[in-house]
Amino acid sequence: MTRLRRAVLTGSLTATIGLALVLGLTDPAPPRLYPTHFFVWNLVLAAIPVAFAAGIAVAGRRIWLIPLGLGWLAFLPNAPYLVTDVVHLSNSTGLWRHVMQYGVAAWTGVILGAVSVHLVHERIEREFGAVTGWIAVVFSVGLCAIGVVIGRFQRWNSWDLVTQPGAVAATTLNWARSPLAYVQSTGVALAVGAFFGLAYLAIWSLWPPAESLPARH
């Protein structure tokens, strides 16, 4: 990516996050069940995967890919998760303002997530080949679909993976054993996963080819 494109991408992401934050912080009447501080907190969580992905992109040694990759995977579902925040529109006044607010937040989450996936995709492809790179993409998109179930319907968050891993695993395995018994959560997971996957393909198709760099060891 050229320096100009990198600057435009950074500026665009910063401006998008800023717009979403302004709409949230200046909301005169946030939804009853979703006050402003939750809105802002979810935006912060959605930005964390980009930080981990940037670290993966520039890490000098392969050994750093493991801790950075685990951190990235833990927080990545928070990005497309913002799409599901529209559920709070039913508990709001000032509907049109909130439609814009949550629409911008959802767009912000999807773009942040897609950019972070692409940064990781490029690094893995450079290190391990094209097939491994696309396997990582499919795995991460699938993980996001599962993350929506964990966060929206089971009400766990990324921190619970550290503080209560057993409980998170138990509830998730219970859903995985019989997904058709939970039609709503499974349907939403599939829809968000498909949407996020298609969004990534759009980003990938428009992203200029990576510079030809030697693999880092």
Automatic annotation (TrEMBL):
Residue stretches spanning the membrane: 38-56, 63-82, 102-121, 128-150, 187-207
Keyword annotations: Membrane, Transmembrane, Transmembrane helix
Family matches, as InterPro entries: DUF1361 (IPR009793)
Protein name: DUF1361 domain-containing protein
Organism listed in the record: Mycobacterium cookii
